[in-house]
Design brief:
The complex is a heterodimer of chains A (about 450) and B (about 150). Chain A is mainly alpha-helical and about 450 residues long. Chain A is about 70% helix and about 0% strand. Chain A contains 21 helices and no strands. Chain A starts with a helix and ends with a helix. Chain B is mostly helical. Chain B has a domain at about 15-35 and about 40-75 and about 115-150. Helix content of chain B is about 70%, strand content about 0%. The chains are: A mainly alpha (about 450), B mainly alpha (about 150). Chains A and B meet through helix 13, helix 15, helix 16, helix 17 and helix 18 of A and helix 1, helix 3, helix 6 and helix 7 of B.
Chain lengths: ~450, ~150
């Protein structure tokens, strides 16, 4: 059960935002500690700002960069934060529940959050106690000893707490209003609440737990994480994922992050978790594609979007076919043009790329560089004109190398054409004007 | 799969890369005697040019790092009875994930469209489609410029 819960957590964790989000939203988490906000915070669906603040607050607690071992729910980290101030070398009280996941992410954010800790220590303690209380109330296991275990965050206790937290989270949702009572009870439960607070935290904590459990798994055995995660993110991707999620939350708290969190009520089956992760990945890519395909901003829904994408791809393919037909008809003119152009390109790319550009060129093309050029083809001129547009070496194997967009490329191309044909044929200026005039229209055709 | 993809990388090289590859393939075509002689039907020429366009695009933009370009090049090489050698690293991973995956439910039409789309997970399919769209549009631009340049004469 624990493992399944962990999986659930980890699965959700993937989707969860990472501490950064909370930090962003809750820069001043603690001002008023809403005990009330605690329960709401625990609510996964809690979307009110105080809960967010709470989350961020709690979140910051968890992110102890030094404690990669995952202080479990971070209770120990929080406690140490309060006391030790900047001493982040928390003992690994809890088994690596996966705090490591958000810890790395949080590390960058920690300093600001840490500043908040001393002020919030009291709050955290109360929160911890509250969580303790919830544990005790909701959990059949919630005997003092389990609570104590929870507080200390020992390994076995953390396991228990995972279950307890789950219960707590469930129950906390329902207990939004019982703040004052809770505070008293938690106080009675003990002073270790500070530590447990981190553990007993809201759904975020739950997510953290998942994260921590996930991180833990990944730390322990990547295969295990892999098996559990399947398509889920691994720990390393979680860090960038956390950051991206946090970015999302910063921009739209209601959209990605909390939405993911709201799935608490869903099945905790590992398969469904993986399914969820997969679906979210797909939707993310769909959004990316939406930006790519022109005129799809208003379209919503996967099916319609898919149709649009398919139509666009088909239209592009048809365009390629159409243009190749056109090229076939103008075949005879291509001789000199091609040679000149190729020679120019080869030279320029060689200029820029040095030795690396030579590799992709087939040797036979090299011979083309030095053949006698027809019509007094002015290679030097074209070289210089196009040369400035090329800024990086040719390396097709690299895949994703970046170049500046050369808007003047078409113009240069036209120049080359004119140079090729213009020698004794047609004055270059009118042709240039016509060519450049036709160019924008052609471009517009290309991108309907 | 999720490991390195957080910011989805769909960078596409500049136009000149596409242009260079396309022109190279075209010049190779010109070298073929069968291509230039008048008895070669226009249809065949069109097909060859089209194929050259796709192959050059695949080589220019994707190289062997993209699934669609790999599938495209492999398909083209098979037609020519050539053998293409790829580094198998990523393909293996993809295959593994494919075996983990259950059913590529929807997006079947997209799979049919994209070269090599039948062997990808849906999320990977989306990514490849994005890159494919970018490359296709770049290739179309190049070809359009070429046609304009030639026809403006």
């Amino acid at each position: 059960m624990d493992t399944s819960e962990k999986e659930e957590f980890s699965g959700e964790k993937r989707n969860d935002n990472h501490p950064a989000d909370w930090r962003v939203s809750g820069s001043n988490p603690v001002s008023a500690p809403p005990f009330g906000s605690y329960p709401t915070e625990n609510l996964i669906t809690a979307s009110c700002s105080p809960s967010q603040m709470m989350d961020s607050f709690g979140q910051t607690l968890w992110y102890d960069p030094t404690n990669v071992q995952a202080v479990g729910y971070g209770g120990s980290s929080s406690s140490s934060c309060f006391r030790g101030g900047m001493d982040w070398s928390l003992p690994n009280l809890l088994p690596p529940k996966g705090n490591g996941l958000f810890l790395p992410n949080a590390s960058s954010f920690l300093p600001p959050s840490m500043a908040q800790f001393p002020a919030d220590s009291g709050f955290i303690e109360r929160a911890a106690r509250f969580s303790l209380f919830s544990d005790m109330v909701n959990q059949p296991l919630g005997s003092p000893e389990s609570v104590g275990l929870f507080v200390q965050g020992q390994c076995p206790s953390s396991e228990v707490n995972v279950g307890g937290v789950a219960h707590n989270n469930v129950i906390r949702c329902s207990e939004q209003g019982s703040k004052p009572n809770v505070s008293e009870d938690t106080q009675s439960s003990g002073q270790k609440g500070g530590e447990t607070s981190s553990k007993g935290f809201d759904s975020k904590k739950r997510k953290r737990n998942r994260q921590s459990s996930e991180a833990e798994q990944s730390q322990r055995s990547e295969e295990e994480a892999e098996n559990n995660g399947g398509d889920k993110k691994e720990q390393s991707p979680n860090s960038p994922g956390n950051k991206t999620n946090s970015g999302k939350q910063a921009s739209d708290p209601k959209d990605g992050y909390i939405h993911v969190r709201a799935r608490r009520g869903q099945a905790t089956n590992s398969h469904s978790l993986a399914e969820r992760v997969r679906r979210e990945k797909i939707s993310e890519r769909m959004k990316f594609l939406q930006d790519l395909v022109p005129g799809c901003n208003k379209v919503t829904g996967k099916a319609v979007m898919l149709d649009e994408i398919i139509n666009y791809v088909q239209s592009l393919q048809r365009q390629v076919e159409f243009l190749s037909m056109k090229l076939a008809t103008v075949n005879p003119q291509m001789d000199f043009y091609l040679e000149g152009l190729l020679a120019k390109d080869v030279r320029e790319l060689q200029l820029r790329g040095g030795s690396s550009s030579a590799t992709p060129f087939p040797t036979q093309n090299m011979s083309m560089v030095y053949p006698p050029l027809p019509h007094g083809f002015m290679q030097q001129q074209t070289l210089s004109s196009v040369g400035r547009t090329i800024s990086s070496p040719l390396s097709p194997m690299n895949g994703g190398y970046k170049r500046q967009e050369t808007n003047g490329w078409e113009g240069d191309l036209q120049n080359v054409i004119h140079i090729n044909y213009g020698a004794g044929d047609v004055p270059s200026d009118p042709e240039a004007a016509a060519a450049t005039a036709s160019l924008p229209s052609s471009n517009m055709k290309v991108e309907p | 799969m999720a490991s390195a993809d957080k910011p989805i990388n769909t960078d596409v090289p500049e136009k000149d890369v596409f242009a260079l590859h396309f022109l190279q393939s075209l010049s190779n075509l010109r070298r073929q005697n069968a291509f230039n002689s008048p008895d070669d039907t226009t249809n065949n020429r069109v097909k060859k040019i089209k194929k050259a366009a796709y192959v050059s695009m695949a080589r220019a933009a994707g190289g062997t790092n993209r699934l669609w370009s790999r599938a495209l090049l492999r398909r083209a090489a098979k037609e020519n009875n050539k053998v293409v050698i790829f580094s198998r690293r990523k393909k293996r991973v993809t295959w593994l994930r494919r075996s983990n995956r259950r059913d590529p439910v929807d997006a079947e039409r997209l799979r049919n469209l994209l070269p090599g789309g039948g062997a990808m997970e849906t999320s990977k399919l989306m990514e490849e489609t994005a890159h494919y769209i970018k490359c296709l549009s770049m290739q179309v631009k190049v070809m359009q410029c070429l046609v304009d340049g030639l026809s403006a004469k």
